[in-house]
Amino acid sequence: MLRISKMTDYAIMVMVELHGLRGEVLSAHALAERSHLELPTVSKVLKLLVKTDLVASYRGPSGGYSLERDAEEISVAEIIAAIEGPIAMTECSVEEGLCAQEAVCGLRGNWQRISLAIAKAMEAVSLAEMAQPVKTPAAPLHITTFNA
Q1: In whole angstroms, what is the distance from residue 33 CA to residue 117 CA?
Q2: Can you tell me the distance from the alpha carbon of 50 to that of 110, in angstroms, rounded to the nearest whole number?
Q3: Rounded to an integer, what distance in angstroms lies between the CA atom of residue 20 and that of residue 3?
Q4: Burial 120-140 (b: 16+ CB within 10 A, else e)
Q5: How far is CA 75 from CA 16, 81, 90, 116, 125, in A?
Q6: Is the Cα dihedral 33, 5, 75, 55 positive or negative?
Q7: pLDDT 10s per residue in the chain (148 long)?
Q8: Class of CATH domain 6-130
Q9: Which positions ≥6 away from 131 have C-beta within 8 Å?
């Protein structure tokens, strides 16, 4: 099963909240309340987002956090990479030498193709789009299973 981590999901939730502020600065505590997440989780997510220049941090009594760029310019792929690292289906599709089977396995090129397709799809979706409700219901996901 392919799935992003809860931390990445929370990061997107926090960034959607920041987008809704239209440039205003909000504290970690206020972001935790608005997103219905625990403060330590929000603080951890914000630290990673600041480190990757997606979120700006301001010190002082009226300090807090805001988006570093317009939400239209931030892709879902950037947020995922900030929390989880490079988007890749397998270790070998990121970098050579990470898999013990690399010398005897010829799948690396195909995994790289798949990882690239997924990354491009996520790059095509902006934070601003994620903040908008879906206008039409999504089609049910149909999964084909194969019995051996």
Answers
A1: 36
A2: 34
A3: 26
A4: eebeeebbeebeeeeeeeeee
A5: 12, 10, 22, 15, 6
A6: positive
A7: 578 899 999 999 999 999 988 878 999 999 999 999 999 999 999 999 999 999 999 998 888 999 999 999 999 999 999 999 888 888 777 777 777 777 788 888 888 899 899 999 999 999 999 999 877 666 666 666 666 5
A8: mainly alpha
A9: 16, 19, 20, 71
Tokens of 24: 């205003």
**Sequence ranges of the domains in the chain:** 6-130
Beta carbons within 10 angstroms of residue 83's beta carbon: 21
Separation between Cα atoms, residue 77 and residue 118, nearest integer Å:
9
Q: Which tokens sit at 31?
A: 């972001």
Among left, alpha and beta (phi > 0; psi -120 to 50; other), residue 25 is beta
